[in-house]
Amino acid sequence: MYYLKYRPQTIEEIDNEDVRTRLKNVLSKKTISHSWLLTGPKGTGKTSSARILAKAINCLDNIFADKGKSEEPCNKCDNCKLITNGSAMDVIEIDGASNRKIDDVRELIDKLKFAPVHMRYKVYIIDEVHMLTSESFNALLKTLEEPPANTIFILATTELDKLPKTIISRCLRLNFSHAKKEEVLRQLGRIVKGEKLTISKDILESIAINCDFSFRDSAKLLEEVVLNSIKTKEEFFNLIGLAENKEDLLHFVQEMDVKKVLIFIENYDIAGGSFKSLTEYLLEELHANLLAQNGVGEEKTKYQFNAKQTSVLIRLITESYGKLKMSPIESLPLEMAILEYIQTQKI
């Protein structure tokens, strides 16, 4: 599987630009927080980054070993290889969902008295940490306040709002935003180069637009493209069950073509598309359009909406996003928002 085979193994390979820059800046100062919190949606690289962090601070051939000036893990020393292979005794990955009870956390805390077996630091990576019980968080809090000198905690979650503020305040936080189109293309480029693939730019961009802002999903889509010998955009859209590209919807809105808008949304619904994902995509595009209109970001605007039209669309679609969970028909809030916009423009 491409996603597993091409997981980032160094800081430089982390495709999320903000995370890559922040991690480099922090580690270049040889700063090692004993408690880290990685937050963001699924498939954005939290677990991969946690493993890279564990390698960097335990590497035998970088600044943390007083060798050279690089904070990058070398991926050649014994410590790096053990962590990469998932066989390092001192790097313990825990699923918060299945180890959420107070007894599980007490058992973890009890083991902290033992020094690392082979490495500089013992690293606990707790995924989906928001699943822990209140009692478990209380037990963990004292450890985060007074951690052993040779122990590092890396907490990862997709639901930051479920974590106690006391836990959040004890950690150095890294925010993983949705994967941007350019970041997904960077990842796809690594895979294409590594596999020696010949994939058109149109298809790669279509993958980046339709991967639900997820590095994991983009790699899976690329693999499907290769397995199905997809050569054209039309074949790609047929593969994922869409009659149109997501980009086309805003063009239909721009043309104020109600029929095309409703047909697109109906086909998207029939194909099993996520309206949460579609709405987020539209807001990302409109936000980029708004910035470009004001001289920020891209030099040219992709759509012909003026600043007022862009603002109205953003407001209406944002309101529809808040109604998604309550709507008995998932497509309805977005349909009503776009229809309301078109009606206001015709007055």
From TrEMBL:
GO molecular function: ATP binding; DNA-directed DNA polymerase activity
Keyword vocabulary terms for this entry: ATP-binding, DNA replication, DNA-directed DNA polymerase, Nucleotide-binding, Nucleotidyltransferase, Transferase
Residue stretches making up the AAA+ ATPase domain: 32-189
Top-tier EC class: transferase
Catalysed reactions, as listed in the record: DNA(n) + a 2'-deoxyribonucleoside 5'-triphosphate = DNA(n+1) + diphosphate
BP GO annotations: DNA-templated DNA replication
Family the UniProt entry places it in: Belongs to the DnaX/STICHEL family.
Subunit-level organization: DNA polymerase III contains a core (composed of alpha, epsilon and theta chains) that associates with a tau subunit. This core dimerizes to form the POLIII' complex. PolIII' associates with the gamma complex (composed of gamma, delta, delta', psi and chi chains) and with the beta chain to form the complete DNA polymerase III complex.
Chain's role: DNA polymerase III is a complex, multichain enzyme responsible for most of the replicative synthesis in bacteria. This DNA polymerase also exhibits 3' to 5' exonuclease activity.
Name of the molecule in the record: DNA polymerase III subunit gamma/tau
Lineage: Bacteria, Candidatus Roizmaniibacteriota
Name of the gene: dnaX
